[in-house]
Amino acid sequence: MGSKLSVDDSVHVVIIGGGFGGIAAATQLKSWGIPFVLVDMRDAFHHNVGALRASVESGFAKKTFISYSMTFGESFRQAKVVGIDLVRQKVLLNNDVELSYSHLILATGSEGPFPGKLNQIIDMETAIQTYEDMVKELQKSPRIVIIGGGAAGVEMAAEIKTEYPDKEVTLIHSKIALADEELQPCVRQEVKEILLRKRVHLLLSERVSNLHTLTLNQFQENMAVKTDKGTEVTADMVILCTGIKINSSAYSSAFGDKLVSNGALKVNQYLQVEGYDNIYAIGDCADVKEPKMAYHAGLHGNIVVTNIINSLTQKPFKAYQPGSLTFLLSMGRNDGVGQINGYYVGRLLVTIAKSRDLFVSKSWKTMGQTMPS
Predict the structure, then answer these.
(1) Cα pseudo-dihedral 85, 248, 216, 172, rounded to 10
(2) Is residue 2 pLDDT above 60, yes or no?
(3) Which alpha helices (DSSP H) does 37-123 contain, by range?
(4) What are φ and ψ of residue 134, in 5° steps?
(5) Helix H segments across the chain?
(6) Count of CB atoms within 10 A of residue 228's CB?
(7) Which of 107, 132, 228, 299 has its Cα between 20 and 30 A from that of 283?
(8) How far is the C-alpha of 115 from the C-alpha of 108, rounded, in Å?
């Protein structure tokens, strides 16, 4: 790349949401010299792939937040989107500002419980401190219960046992098999064996029945965690790793008839929202048959910018092909398992590819900034 595209004043792209898909799109637009505004409620990109380690290992959190304005300057706007006027082609912000768009990219991502996601709208320094506070709470807690055994839950348990092997960690999961359903049985079995080797207690096919009475993410001695099977576990800290939901509030009223039941938007093969040739949805908010992953969101961002350029240069559009599943589970910084293109990959490869730095250096490179040591 590096070549600039000469466009007239009518071209102006608005990106709503600065997650992995949003920054991929913004970086591409910037390199092509296409005018754009990236809108996000926060002042920094959150590399949430590293969020679990940031809540366990002191000093890691500062590597997981990257300033938007340092990278995008005037093309970044910190605000909340309160509506989209499809007729006038304007995005309405909470400070009564309206942004006109020729092309719109919806990249609003998903939200879920802390520490896997950070839903609070706070500045970067406060966000980093929130994770450092969690590390301190964890250090005080000898007995930890993790609720949920999907990807986040199993990675959380492994991170804690890697950093603090003497802590008693119990993982409670409502299903028999751990990690994500899209993964091959042999990968899910290896996840289980890694956790057992790390001496994590597993309570499978049980559901926590008194969640509303429990204090989350804070040291509190002798909490009784109860399950629907009558099991009771005593904990000093409880961490919730379930319940990710798509963040559709910015667009749900404008695109009511284009939403599927989970809040994602119906898109065609070019990732255009059905019925709109200048509006795209990427990442978690696009209804694409593949797991919701940072890696896929980045691919979507690149395809969509290619299609915007192709629409301006009268070239054919590029279709997005969901590939066969690439899914790497980091089980602490020195272990992991996963699959690439349908093939099992073991500890050595996953550790080198993901577990050591959880791709944080890649995000700093994308944002053109130097990662703090």
Answers:
(1) 180
(2) no
(3) 51-54, 68-72
(4) -65, -40
(5) 20-32, 51-54, 68-72, 124-140, 151-163, 185-197, 294-312, 347-350, 360-366
(6) 12
(7) 132
(8) 19
